[in-house]
Write a structure and sequence with these properties.
This protein has 13 helices and 33 strands. It is an alpha+beta fold and 622 residues long. The strands form eight sheets. Strands 1, 2, 8, 9, 10, 11, 19 and 20 form an eight-stranded mixed β-sheet that branches. Strands 26, 27, 28, 31, 32 and 33 form a six-stranded mixed β-sheet that branches. A five-stranded antiparallel β-sheet has the order 14-15-16-13-17, covered by helices on one side. The chain starts with 9 loop residues before the first strand and ends with a strand.
C-alpha cells in the first residue's frame, strides 16, 4: 500500500521526485533492477482528469516487456492510425513488426492507477503528500528535505516532477527553448457526434478545432485554437460557454457540447534541458522536455526516458556497473528530446497558422506523407518504433551491426517469447541451436543474464547472428555469428555505371520484393535529388541501413538466411560524388554477407530531377 510521509531520516539507493506516469514507471524499473526506491509525490490523490490520453505502440510494447500491456488494452480504445499536425494523411503503423501497430486512447487517471499498482507490486515505497522543499547534492549522496521536516538521503535523485522541476532548478540545469506566445482551449465534454464518426474537427479563417475520443467512452477531447482568444493568459479559467463559442466560430457548430469533466488551457511553450544529468541529480519526462501536446508524444517519450534510465540506475546504484553507464542515458535519450522539440514545434506551426499560404503548405506536407517511405519515417518517430541507440553502450564494447535496435517479440524454443523472457528486467541472451552464446561485455560481468534459445534470429534491423544479447529495455546490446565472434565484413563490389548503359523506367518506385524461383528481387529504395536533398529516409546512414534491411526482407521472401547467398554485387548509378562517400561507406559497414560477390541482375530506375536509384538482385542456391 501507499505509505504516509515518514519523519525520520533514512538512506536509500534512489529517490524519484514526482509520481506521474514517468516517475511511477522509472521507480518500478529501478526497483525491478534491485535498487531500493522511494517515490515522493506532492499530491495526496492521483489525478482525476483524463489529461494525457495517448499511448503509442512502442510504449505499449514497453509495458508488454513487463507483462502489463493487457491491463491497458482492457480499458483503452485502440486507433489504427494517427495524425501529424491534424493533416488529412494519417500515419500508418501497420508496417512495423509489433503486436501493437496502433495508438491507444486511455485517460491518464487510469494509466496512473495501473502504473502505481505495478510500482507498489514491484516494491517501490510510494509516498503521497510528500512535498520536497530542498535538495542538496553532497557529492557522495543527496539529501531530500520534505515539508514535514523529514529527510531522505539517497545515492541518486531523479526529477520527474514536471516543467517547474525543483530537481532541475536545484541542479541549475538550463531549460532553453521557445517561450509561450499563445494559449489554446482544451476540454473533455460530451458531444452529439454521429456513431462511428472519425477523428475530426475543422478550420477556417477564425481558427481550428480537433476532436478525438477521450478514452472513457463518454466524453470527447476538444482542442480549439480560436484566433480571437489565442492571447488569453493560460491561467485564466476556461468556461464551457467559451469553449462552445470557439467551436461555433471555428467549425460552424458546437456539437451540443455539455457536461465538461475537464476544462483547461495549454500553450505552445517548447523547451529542452541542456543536460539530463548533473552530479547525482537526473531528469526525465517533462522535467527534461516540454512542448505543445502535438501528436500525444509527451507521456510516451517520458516513459521511454524512464525505461532507458531505470535499469542503468539500478545497476550503478547497486555497484554492479560503472557510473559511466549513466552517461549513456543522456547520449541516448537527449537526441530523442531534440527530435521531439523539432517535430512538435513544426506540427504546431502547421496546425496553428490559418493563412491561405499555410493551407497550401499543409496540403504539400500531407501529400508528402502519402509517400510510404516518408510516412514510415514520421510514424516511426511519433510512435517510438524507429528509436535506436547505435553507439556502444560501454567502453569495452565493439560496435556491432544492429546494436541498439528495438528487438521484436521473437518466438523461443520453449514455447514462450522474448518479450516474456524480459519480464524480470534482466539481460536476455538468445542463442540458436548449434551456436555458441555471445559473452556479456566485461562491464556487465556482475549482471545476471537469462539464457534462452530460438530456432532462428530473423530480425529486420539486426543482421543474421547465432546469438544476441538483449538489454532490459528491449534493445539489442550485441550479436555474433556461430563462432561467438563478430562476422568479418565482406568486400562489397561497387561499380559506377552511366545511365545510358542500363535500361529503366520513369518515376520513383518504392520497395518491391518478389520471389522468382531462386532469386530475391529488390527495387528502388535509395534516391537523391541533384540538389543533394534525399527522397525517403532522413539520413545517409539510415539509407544505407535500409538497403541492408531490404536485402533481408527479400531473403525472407524465399525463407532463406544471408548465409545462403552465393554471390552478389551492388551497382550504383551516380549523379553525385557524395553518394559513394555517404551511402556506400555506411552500407559496407552495416551490411554483413559472405565475401563472394558477383552480379546476377540489375535494373536502375530514373525520375525527374536526376534521382539516384540503387537496385540489388541477390542470387541464392537452389
Amino acid at each position: 500500500m501507499t505509505n504516509s510521509v515518514k519523519e525520520t531520516s533514512e538512506v536509500v539507493d534512489v529517490v524519484v521526485v514526482g509520481g506521474g506516469p514517468v516517475g511511477l514507471w522509472l521507480a518500478a524499473e529501478a526497483r525491478l533492477g534491485g535498487a531500493s526506491v522511494v517515490l515522493v509525490e506532492r499530491r495526496v490523490e492521483r489525478v482525476r482528469q483524463s489529461r494525457a490520453l495517448t499511448i503509442h505502440g512502442r510504449t505499449l510494447e514497453t509495458f508488454g516487456l513487463r507483462g502489463l500491456s493487457s491491463r491497458f488494452l482492457e480499458v483503452g480504445r485502440p486507433m489504427p492510425t494517427w495524425h501529424f499536425a491534424s493533416l488529412d494523411t494519417r500515419l500508418d503503423f501497420s508496417g512495423f513488426d509489433t503486436p501493437y501497430p496502433f495508438t491507444l486512447f486511455i485517460p491518464q487517471s487510469l494509466t496512473e492507477a495501473i502504473l502505481e499498482d505495478h510500482a507498489v507490486e514491484a516494491g517501490v515505497d510510494v509516498r503521497r503528500g510528500a512535498v520536497v522543499v530542498g535538495i542538496e547534492d553532497r557529492g557522495d549522496q543527496v539529501d531530500v528535505a520534505l515539508e514535514d521536516g523529514g529527510v531522505i538521503s539517497s545515492r541518486w535523485v531523479v526529477g520527474s516532477d514536471g516543467a517547474r522541476s525543483i530537481v532541475r532548478r536545484t541542479a541549475d540545469i538550463d531549460f532553453p527553448g521557445l517561450a509561450a506566445t499563445e494559449s489554446i482551449a482544451m476540454g473533455d465534454v460530451v458531444l452529439d457526434l454521429p456513431d462511428g464518426a472519425p477523428l475530426g474537427g475543422g478550420q477556417n479563417e477564425f481558427g481550428g478545432a480537433s476532436i478525438i475520443p477521450s478514452g472513457d467512452g463518454v466524453h470527447s477531447r476538444v482542442i480549439v485554437l480560436d484566433t480571437t482568444r489565442r492571447h488569453v493568459p493560460q491561467n485564466e479559467p476556461l468556461t464551457l460557454e467559451e469553449l462552445r463559442e470557439s467551436l461555433r466560430r471555428t467549425t460552424g457548430t458546437d456539437f451540443g457540447a455539455r457536461d465538461a469533466s475537464w476544462l483547461t488551457r495549454f500553450t505552445n511553450e517548447t523547451r529542452l534541458a541542456s543536460s539530463y544529468r548533473k552530479g547525482r541529480l537526473l531528469l526525465a519526462g517533462d522535467a527534461a522536455h516540454i512542448h505543445a501536446p502535438m501528436g500525444g508524444q509527451g507521456l510516451n517519450v517520458g516513459v521511454q526516458d524512464a525505461m532507458n534510465l531505470g535499469w542503468k540506475l539500478a545497476l550503478v546504484a547497486t555497484d554492479r556497473a560503472p557510473e559511466g553507464l549513466l552517461e549513456t542515458y543522456e547520449s541516448e535519450r537527449r537526441p530523442v528530446g531534440e527530435r521531439l522539440f523539432a517535430n512538435t514545434a513544426a506540427q504546431y506551426k502547421l496546425a496553428s497558422d490559418f493563412s491561405p499560404a499555410n493551407r497550401y503548405l499543409r496540403d504539400v506536407v500531407s501529400g508528402l506523407l502519402a509517400v510510404p517511405e516518408a510516412n514510415r519515417v514520421m510514424a516511426g518517430e511519433v510512435s517510438g518504433f524507429s528509436v535506436s541507440y547505435p553507439q556502444p553502450l560501454v567502453a569495452d564494447s565493439e560496435p556491432t551491426s544492429g546494436a541498439g535496435r528495438r528487438t521484436p517479440d521473437l518466438p523461443l524454443t520453449d514455447g514462450s517469447t522474448l518479450h516474456h523472457a524480459l519480464a524480470e528486467g534482466k539481460f536476455v541472451r538468445v542463442t540458436t541451436p548449434g551456436d555458441r552464446a555471445i559473452p556479456l561485455p566485461a562491464a556487465f560481468r556482475q549482471v545476471p543474464v537469462l539464457d534462452v534459445r530460438a530456432e532462428r534470429l530473423d530480425i529486420d534491423d539486426v543482421p543474421a547472428a547465432g546469438s544476441i544479447i538483449v538489454r532490459p529495455d528491449g534493445y539489442t546490446l550485441a550479436g555474433s555469428g556461430a563462432d561467438a565472434t563478430p562476422r568479418s565484413r565482406p568486400s562489397v563490389s561497387i561499380q559506377r555505371l552511366n545511365p545510358e548503359d542500363l535500361h529503366g523506367a520513369p518515376g520513383f518506385i518504392s520497395q518491391i520484393v518478389q520471389a522468382r524461383g531462386s532469386l530475391a528481387f529488390l527495387a528502388g529504395q535509395v534516391a537523391q535529388r541533384a540538389d543533394g536533398t534525399w527522397v525517403g529516409l532522413g539520413s545517409h546512414r539510415e539509407q544505407a541501413e535500409q538497403i541492408a534491411r531490404n536485402i533481408d526482407t527479400a531473403l525472407r521472401a524465399l525463407d532463406l538466411r544471408r548465409d545462403a547467398i552465393v554471390k552478389e554485387t551492388i551497382y550504383v548509378v551516380d549523379y553525385s560524388p557524395a553518394l559513394l562517400r555517404d551511402i556506400v561507406g555506411p552500407l559496407r559497414d552495416s551490411y554483413t554477407a559472405p565475401p563472394a560477390s558477383t552480379l546476377v541482375g540489375v535494373d536502375t530506375l530514373f525520375a525527374a530531377e536526376a534521382l539516384i536509384e540503387v537496385e540489388v538482385t541477390v542470387a541464392v542456391e537452389a
